[in-house]
TrEMBL record:
It comes from the Bacteria. This is Membrane protein 6-pyruvoyl-tetrahydropterin synthase-related domain-containing protein. Keywords: Membrane, Transmembrane, Transmembrane helix. InterPro entries: Uncharacterised_YfhO. The chain crosses the membrane at residues 31-48, 54-86, 98-118, 157-177, 184-202, 222-243, 250-267, 555-574. Pfam families: YfhO. The keyword Ribonucleoprotein does not apply. The lineage of its organism: Bacteria, Candidatus Nealsoniibacteriota.
């Protein structure tokens, strides 16, 4: 625990506390995974080699897997590593117990991983994320960082790095690698160091490993950190066992040497955590000082017609000092106020995420496309001519831009299709073209071939370019498609009443997913995905009403109940065993008491 709190990296998302605290990355779910991963591995070892009951191993493993997919992946591959400790006689029964354990884990967590697997074609692999996140850094850089102290001691004297290599020397010199547990610890640590090298070193291997294509391999540093921390712990324990036989003077000198090695880390981390507290307090004071204005912003927006609010993106003015309260950007504050905003992509899995980050705040049609009706600008900023002032606050001014709301009527000129990894290019080009202004939204199909052509031109994602988009623009002004008469939104559903003058599509300006259910005039209809990743249905002339509602797969909740049922069965099996053991202990104690009492009586 002491060593793990002293880790320091340059934002590598490892087990250093910078991954979790306020001034760091705030990886709350990884914190749960970090805590339960060593517990899960310990229980898996007991199940496989000591034939313990499965309950705790499955429970802790499920918590790890549901907290963080990368750490779940680490857990699964680490379970396979345990097989290396088995003798030839043990391998078959151990393999059976490991397989049964993983099968039970798959059942308990099935409500999560099965939909995740089935929806993989609609999960975004962001082009905005640096390549190293998916590929890691390669052996040369990682080994260089390891030996120069960057993996354990970024920005300071490499105290923990020294302890790590000293601990390895102690383990080797004392030949503790001959012990199974120590040997596994070494295998675990260096296996994950090798995998942490990533695709630059092991591209062929990662093409074989299942589900590794969209995995953030740079986060495998967490597994290496865990192994390294335990190696340091073993090394220090062995050193203590060796030194405690010596006189107090030698023990005192060893203690001073140990503190001298750790001192730079202790001092640097104390300053780091103190700065974290200072920044938090400063931001809390800033938010408190503007609490009245924040409350007024919330009340004003809640009383208005529901639409998205824009206070800047990180790529434009969203991170400017005028749009921060303390260290907190307004685009981070609005979601906390339960206000739907168009800002930072906190949830980046929808396919349209990367495209929408190209939003151009100088184009009126893009405000309508994303239903950005309200804008907060600092009072010192000059608004574009199409902004209409609504309300002046203490530091900010609220503006309005006309939009059609969450719904619009659009035309469909073609069908674009291709792999999900090619989704970004045609849709970003579409956004830059004249088609959004003309309300021309191609249907988007994920797959090698479109499931349906709709009697429209079909164009692969890879073939979409400026010329293709120019050719799709209508040669004459489109007649009025119709209009939105009314709309209403509730949790996970949107309702609208509208009129249509000619065949077109009704588009809901939110992310497409197969879980969306749509009814048109109380009749269920099949939705399609429209550029840049929204939901649409075909409509005919007349007055209609439509209801769009999101429903998760109807078998997901039964899977959750089934997983809980499996855990309850395992718990029953576990508790019965411990109750029986407890009963035996109680009986044994009673017998001993009776014998002691009898001996006293004889004396």
């Amino acid at each position: 625990a002491l060593i793990s709190s002293l880790l320091s990296t340059n934002g590598l998302f490892g087990l250093d506390y910078g991954s979790y605290i306020w001034r760091g990355s705030g990886l709350h779910t990884q914190l749960w995974a970090m805590f339960f991963l060593p517990l899960a591995l310990a229980e898996i070892y007991r199940v496989i080699f000591q034939k313990n009951k499965f309950f705790l191993a499955v429970l802790f493993s499920a918590i790890v897997f549901l907290s963080n997919v990368v750490y779940g992946y680490i857990l699964l591959l680490s379970t396979v590593l345990f097989l290396l400790l088995a003798s030839k006689k043990e391998i078959v029964p151990i393999l059976k117990r490991a397989a049964l354990l993983l099968f039970l884990l798959a059942l308990v967590a099935s409500y999560f991983w099965l939909p995740f697997l089935l929806d993989k074609n609609y999960l975004n692999r962001s082009v905005w994320e640096a390549a190293y996140k998916y590929d890691s850094f390669g052996a040369k850089k990682i080994l260089s960082d390891l030996f120069t102290g960057q993996i354990f001691d970024y920005g300071r004297i490499p105290s923990l790095t020294i302890l790590f290599f000293l601990s390895l020397i102690v383990i080797v010199v004392l030949k503790r690698y001959r012990q199974a547990k120590c040997r596994f610890l070494l295998i675990f640590t260096f296996f994950w160091l090798l995998l942490y090298f990533g695709r630059p070193t092991w591209d062929g291997i990662f093409s074989i490993l299942p589900f590794s294509q969209d995995l953030h391999l740079h986060r495998l540093i967490g597994a290496f950190h865990l192994g390294a921390i335990m190696i340091i712990g073993v090394g220090l324990s062995l050193a203590w066992q060796y030194l405690k036989k010596y006189p107090l003077k030698i023990l005192t000198a060893a203690g001073f040497i140990f503190l001298a090695i750790l001192a730079p880390s202790l001092i640097e981390r104390a300053k780091f955590y103190q700065q974290n507290s200072q920044w938090k307090i400063e931001s809390q004071k800033a938010i408190f000082s503007q609490e009245k204005e924040i409350s007024e912003i919330k009340k004003t927006l809640k009383d208005l017609l529901p639409s998205r609010v824009y206070v800047g993106l990180p790529a434009d003015f969203g991170d400017g000092p005028a749009y921060k309260i303390g260290s907190v950007p307004l685009y981070s504050l609005l979601p906390q106020l339960d206000i739907e905003s168009f800002g930072y992509a906190f949830f980046a899995l929808p396919l349209s995420t990367d495209v929408r980050l190209h939003f151009d705040n100088g184009k009126l049609e893009q405000y309508n496309l994303f239903n950005i009706r309200y804008i907060l600008l600092h009072k010192t900023w000059t608004a574009p001519p199409f902004y209409f002032k609504m309300k002046e606050l203490e530091n900010y001014v609220l503006y309005e831009v006309p939009t059609t709301g969450y719904f619009d009527l659009v035309d469909v000129p073609a069908v674009f299709y291709g792999k999900k990894n090619d989704f970004y290019s045609p849709n970003s080009k579409w956004l830059f073209s004249s088609l959004p202004q003309l309300k021309q939204h191609p249907i988007l199909e994920i797959g090698k071939e479109p499931k349906e052509t709709f009697n429209l031109p079909t164009i692969p994602f890879s073939k979409v370019d400026e010329k293709v988009l120019l050719d799709l623009a209508p040669t004459k002004d489109a007649t009025e498609r119709g209009g939105i008469l009314n709309e209403r939104m509730e949790t996970n559903q949107y309702w609208t009443q509208f009129f249509v003058n000619h065949d077109c599509y009704l588009m809901l300006k939110t992310n497409y997913h197969p879980g969306w259910q749509v009814s048109l005039d109380y009749q269920k209809v099949e939705p399609v995905m429209l550029a840049p990743g929204f939901i649409g249905i075909k409509v005919t002339p007349g007055v209609h009403q439509a209801l769009f509602s999101y429903q998760p797969s109807n078998w997901r909740f039964p899977l959750l109940l089934f997983g809980i049922f499996i855990l309850l069965i395992l718990f029953y099996d576990y508790s019965i065993k411990h109750w029986l053991e407890g009963s035996k202990v109680v009986k044994l104690k009673n017998k001993l008491k009776q014998k002691v009492a009898f001996l006293k009586f004889l004396n």
